[in-house]
Write a structure and sequence with these properties.
about 0% strand, CopC/D, cell membrane, about 625 residues, 3 domains, Putative copper resistance protein D, Caa3_assmbl_CtaG-rel, mainly alpha, globular
């Protein structure tokens, strides 16, 4: 695929200067807002109505600008043909949406500082803001958001092809992480689960709301691709709906202890408003698919009638979405029904989570957490795979062994993140080791065994209008130079996997992965990705002769040996693994750190060996499938 060039003739330096002027204007407006609170006696008064009511309003603007940025980039990436007028218009709109995100973030950051600091001398305004942005966690989050949105503005302006759009979209989703860390997940139990759920909630809403706004914008610019545009956005909206619903359910389960609190508390009533808004949006989405796509999707239908049908429903959807986002901004400043959770023990104060019951076999039945990310991956990933596999079996044949691998992968992910390992991962090194090896290594090998890429190529047709769908993006990624080297050199991907595991378990990285939601998520994703490359690189050797097949088996066994040596090192680390952390959490559970460390080492080698054994089974099955069948003698 080749990148498209824009028809815009404005120089890059002029755009960067304009973005810099916007940033300066935003900071100036924020400082003016702060100075307006200075009283004649030289002090800053306590937050009044301007901050109390203005901060939620500005946060709504931040959310809307973030949603517009992400929606424009997602629609450009998946719905619009490359190089057409609508594509160029979307790429022209992306940097200005991110610039509005930047301006609103600057103002919201200063208003947040005013709401937290209280009375401050006028000559201490600058140092107070500097301290807020550098030493306070909320201020550091806002500062990171400001830097990332400024970067998105520059990247989105320079993006003229697929690589630039992908980079800008990834940065936009990453910029939502500080917003999630600032949200109302910090005071909830199971901080990691609540924070990840909040990020998914914000990201799903941004894709849903911003995508709809971008579709409306494109429909007004170019009506030739209206039918295909609405149909493709419908699939994106379904993914956003699943993300919002699952993450919202996870957040409600963490913060509400009784369903009656939905009606008896302020937090519950605001949450009920969001639930009603979600149900209305589901009804609007069903109406879009039923009336707009099916009845007016034919090009024989009058264009004006199609646009009126879509526009009326889209307008109501945007209104309801705005109400939901405004309610969410107020909800983030509303105290949860139980208030701040009282963390009595030292282990709870260290981790920020409630202390679970003592571990044991019985915990396999009652130690459950609702991990929104894991459930969303299973619902979207396994659901899409199952739908495609059924279609493939109807049109031809799809081996049952691949279906078994997909089902096994879904079961492993749910067990790793929603059962005992996920519930104890913050408190126990053995539990976190189990979570990482099951969710990052074994599940990756099962995914490769299920062959979702081949299923995608079998079921989904290539688009002929120049737009980029899931199959086109997958082909572009797999055909890139960055993927070619590890896929063609199994020993390199094997070394990368062993080195990565050693770095995670024997360096300060482990503390970041255990204690921080971002660290845990990125570590799992990285281990999953490297393991996928390792397994896929071994499978590629099947078509290259028996000699390379024997070499692949040898590499797999070498990985088992290397992980075994790593497990021995982990078992006898001098002073123990993270003594300042596990030395507090494990005694609170009635477990000695030395025993937990030994169990973790055994599980590290055992799960890795099981994963490699599964990979060898897959290699053997591929050899049998590739072997030509001998002709059977005819019966007399």
């Amino acid at each position: 695929m080749t990148g498209a060039t824009s028809t815009r003739s404005a120089p890059t330096r002029g755009a960067i200067a304009a973005l810099a002027a916007l940033a300066i204007t935003a900071l100036s407006a924020a400082l003016v807002l702060a100075l307006l609170t200075v009283q004649p006696d030289g002090s800053i008064f306590n937050p009044g109505p301007a901050v109390t009511y203005g901060l939620p309003a500005v946060k709504v603007v931040v959310d809307l600008a973030a949603a517009a940025t992400i929606g424009v980039l997602v629609v450009a990436a998946f719905c619009v043909p490359v190089g057409l007028r609508s594509w160029n218009r979307l790429l022209d709109a992306a940097p200005w949406c991110s610039a509005c995100w930047l301006v609103a973030s600057c103002i919201a950051a200063v208003m947040t500082s005013i709401s937290l600091t209280g009375p401050v001398e006028a000559n201490m305004l600058g140092p107070s803001l500097a301290q807020f942005f550098t030493q306070i966690a909320v201020g550091q989050g806002w500062f990171a958001t400001i830097l990332m949105t400024a970067t998105i503005s520059v990247v989105a302006f320079a993006a003229r092809g697929q690589a630039g759009v992908a980079a800008a979209a990834i940065l936009a989703f990453a910029a939502l992480v500080p917003l999630a860390l600032q949200g109302h997940a910090a005071g909830a139990g199971n901080h990691v689960t609540a924070t990840v759920a909040l990020w998914l909630h914000v990201a799903g809403a941004a894709v849903w709301v911003g995508g709809l706004a971008a579709v409306v914008y494109v429909a007004t610019v170019d009506g030739r691709t209206f039918v295909a545009l609405v149909r493709r956005y419908s699939a994106i909206a379904l993914a956003g709906l699943c993300a919002v619903t699952i993450s919202g359910l996870a957040g409600a389960l963490v913060r509400l202890s009784d369903p009656a609190q939905l009606l008896t508390t302020d937090y519950g009533r605001l949450l009920s408003v969001k639930v009603v808004a979600l149900l209305l949006l589901v009804a609007f989405g069903w109406a879009q698919r039923t009336y707009v796509i099916r009845r007016f999707g034919s090009m024989d239908a009058p264009a004006l009638r199609r646009r009126l049908a879509f526009g009326s429903l889209a307008l109501w959807e945007l209104v309801v979405m705005g109400v939901a986002m405004g309610t969410g901004a107020t909800l983030s400043r509303t105290e949860t029904p139980g208030g701040q959770i009282l963390l009595a023990t030292k282990a709870e104060q260290l981790t920020g989570d409630r202390l679970p019951l003592a571990p044991g076999i019985a915990r396999l039945m009652d130690a459950w957490v609702f991990d929104a990310a894991a459930v969303l991956v299973v619902v979207l990933g396994f659901g899409s795979y199952l739908y495609g596999a059924i279609a493939a079996r109807r049109s031809g044949s799809w081996p049952r062994s691949r279906m078994v691998a997909a089902i096994g992968c879904a079961v492993v992910i749910v067990f790793a993140f929603c059962s005992l390992p996920g519930a104890y991962a913050t408190f126990s090194f053995a539990a976190y080791t189990t979570l990482l090896l099951l969710g990052g290594v074994l599940s990756a090998i099962l995914v490769v065994a299920a062959q979702p890429i081949r299923l995608l190529q079998t079921v989904v047709r290539l688009r002929g209008d120049g737009s980029l769908g899931t199959r086109e993006w997958t082909s572009w990624v797999l055909g890139s130079r960055a993927m070619a080297v590890p896929l063609r050199t199994p020993w390199l991907s094997a070394c990368a996997l062993v080195v990565l595991l050693g770095t995670v378990f024997l360096s300060p990285w482990l503390g970041w992965a255990v204690q921080d939601p971002v660290g845990r998520t990125l570590t799992t994703v990285l281990v999953f990705g490297v393991t996928t490359l390792f397994a896929a690189s071994l499978l590629r050797t099947l078509g290259e002769g028996q000699r390379l097949l024997a070499q692949a088996v040898g590499i797999a066994m070498a990985v088992v040996l290397a992980v075994g040596l790593l497990a021995v090192v982990v078992a006898f680390v001098p002073g123990g693994i993270l003594p300042a952390w596990y030395g507090v959490t494990l005694p609170a559970l009635g477990v000695t750190p030395a025993l937990d460390q030994l169990i973790a080492a055994v599980l590290l080698w055992a799960i890795a060996a099981i994963a490699v054994f599964v990979l060898l089974l897959v290699l053997g099955q591929r050899v049998v499938e590739a072997r030509p069948e001998s002709p059977r003698p005819e019966r007399a």
